[in-house]
Write a structure and sequence with these properties.
The chain has 417 residues and is an alpha/beta fold. The chain contains ten helices and 15 strands. The strands form four sheets. The protein has a six-stranded parallel sheet with strand order 2-1-3-4-5-6. The protein has a five-stranded parallel sheet with strand order 9-8-10-11-12, with helices on both faces. Strands 7-13 form a two-stranded antiparallel sheet. Strand 1, helix 2 (96-103) and strand 2 form a beta-alpha-beta unit. Helix 3 (230-238) packs across helix 6 (323-334). The longest helix is centred in the first third of the chain and has 61 residues, at 2-62. The radius of gyration is 28 Å and the shape is flat. The termini are far apart. The relative contact order is 0.13. The mean pLDDT is 87.
């Protein structure tokens, strides 16, 4: 009797507990659905607002609803060229007073006094070039209200497409020149270059660059999010060849200068992962240059810009069938000093060139003072900036990179990082 009653009570408690679980699950499910609906509505509203904004910007320039400037540049072709920065560089205004002294004097960096920089928007009608930084706050409500036929509007950015404010891709027939990392830009704004030495030099004799180091790779990453899934690649590589990751995202920070950190890593690491955060045409950054400047590590690159690296100075991760295959090759190199040292032979023939941060302004000044520069305008910025970049993402299940849809690389708000 008591046993049956206890069993009945147990069943009752069990059913009651299961019912509570179902109610909680149902509540969580409904809450999740509600959040998804709200997100969808917000996305649609933002999309409609942005499309309206882009159409408004396009109509202003396509219909030429602009104030007229009473300026005729042809009257004084030899005047000093004015370069107006319409936007900030990210969140910082350029220091035009400092830069004019540093760059545009006969003894300055650009070795010319034929240009002048300004932040003063009242100089719009006297400006030969108007510069817009892609992450400097380009806004449809803050566009120039006047434009001269002779003016060059310049797009400035070192960022890959997915870090470029989407409004840029909608500004068709707006920009005349581009200053970016791309090879087909009008103005060189790349992180590094290289050149052939005028005279081949005999590097000091070194017993071996390997110096008894074992197969280990170093990595310094400050961007916690990558469009190309480089973290997945590194994780698999690390399972065979130890990878020491240093940077903001790892919690393993080096408190010294970047150069000191690299030298410290080079003592025990024969390889350096120069893995970019984006696989887009020509996008290569200082990561490769850092490894080259260390003079003791072979850079392993993960990019779509191998044509921009010094020949025979790097290992291309994309040329291996898998991270495991790359790991096997790295182990082989650390057991064969002759093969390892072959990646340093370029030093006798080539040299790395790291430009000054403001050298692009020297290039811009030269072009403004060249009367033979042809008329040019970018009719389709979405095609040039996004489609032609041909960005890709590495897929660990496929062991290869696949194309990223163009619309996915276009942010519809200012990028978060």
């Amino acid at each position: 009797m008591f046993f049956r009653s206890d069993c009945s009570m147990f069943r009752h408690v069990k059913v009651y507990g299961f019912s509570r679980y179902l109610r909680r699950f149902s509540f969580a499910k409904n809450l999740l659905i509600l959040l998804l609906i709200i997100l969808a509505i917000v996305y649609i509203i933002l999309k409609i607002r942005l499309i309206t904004v882009y159409n408004d910007v396009h109509s202003i320039y396509s219909k030429a609803r602009l104030r007229k400037c009473n300026t005729d540049f042809s009257r004084n072709p030899n005047r000093v060229k004015i370069i107006l920065f319409w936007t900030k560089i990210f969140s910082t205004k350029i220091n035009d007073h400092f830069l004019n002294k540093y760059l545009f004097q006969e003894t300055g960096r650009c070795a010319t006094d034929r240009c002048k920089l300004t932040n003063n928007r009242y100089s719009l009608c006297q400006s030969d070039a108007v510069v817009f930084h892609a992450r400097g706050g380009i806004s449809s409500s803050d566009m120039p209200d006047a434009r001269l036929p002779e003016q060059r509007y310049v797009l400035l950015t070192k960022e890959p497409p997915y870090k470029t404010t989407a409004i840029v891709g909608h500004l068709n027939s707006f920009f005349n020149w581009t200053a970016t990392y791309r090879v087909d830009s009008d103005i060189n704004y790349r992180y590094f270059d290289w050149k052939t030495k005028t005279v081949n030099t005999q590097e000091p004799f070194i017993q071996t660059y390997l110096n008894n180091r074992t197969a280990r790779a170093a990595s310094m990453i400050s961007n916690c999010y990558s469009e190309n899934n480089r973290d997945d690649y590194i994780k698999r590589l690390n399972a065979i060849v130890p990878v020491t990751s240093i940077g903001y995202c790892t919690g393993n920070k080096c408190e010294k200068s970047r150069f000191e950190c690299l030298n410290q890593l080079a003592d025990t690491h024969p390889f350096y992962l120069s893995f970019e955060n984006s696989l887009c045409n020509d996008y290569v950054t200082e990561k490769y240059a850092n490894a080259i400047l260390s003079e003791r590590m072979i850079p392993i690159v993960f990019s779509k810009g191998v044509h921009l690296y010094i020949p025979n100075s790097f290992i291309d991760a994309n040329q291996f069938s898998s991270p495991e295959n790359l790991a096997d090759y790295l182990i082989y190199l650390t057991k064969n000093s002759t093969a390892y040292d072959s990646y340093f032979q370029w030093r006798q023939q080539y040299e790395l060139v790291v430009p000054d941060e403001y050298d692009y302004l020297c290039d811009l000044c030269r072009k403004l003072n060249d009367p033979n520069q042809p008329t040019k305008i970018y009719g389709n910025m979405k095609k040039w900036l996004y489609e032609d970049a041909k960005c890709q993402r590495w897929m660990t299940k496929l062991n290869r990179s696949v194309d990223i849809p163009v619309d996915e690389t276009m942010d519809y708000e200012d990028p978060w990082f």
